[in-house]
Amino acid sequence: MAKMTVARAMVEVLKSEGVEIIFGIPGAAIYPFYDALYSSDIKHVLVRTEQAAVHEASGYARTTGKVGVCVATSGPGATNLITGIATAYMDSVPIVAITGQVNSSLIGKDVFQEVDITGATAPFTKHNYLVKDPKKIVRILKEAFYIASTGRRGPVLIDVPIDVQMQEIEFEIPKEIDIPGYKPKEKGHPLQIKRAVEAIENSKRPVVCSGGGVIASGASEELRILVEKQKIPVISTLMGIGCIPTDHPYYLGMIGSHGQKEANLALRQADLLIVIGARLADRALGDTKITDNMKIIHIDIDPAEIGKNVDTNIPIVGDAKQVLSEINKRISERKDFWAYEIKAQKKVLPDDDKLHPYDVLKEISRAYNGDYIITTDVGQHQIWAAHNLYIKKPGTFITSGGLGTMGYGIPAAIGAKFGRPDKEVISITGDGSFQMLLQELATIKREQVPIKIVLFNNTRLGMVYELQKKRCTGRFIATCLDGNPDFMILAKAYGIESMRLESKEKLKEAIEIMKIHDGPFLLEVVTSPDEPTIP
Question: What InterPro entries is this protein classified in (predicted)?
Answer without folding.
Answer: Acetolactate_synth_lsu, AHAS_TPP, DHS-like_NAD/FAD-binding_dom, THDP-binding, Thiamin_PyroP_enz_cen_dom, Thiamin_PyroP_enz_TPP-bd_dom, TPP-bd_CS, TPP_enz
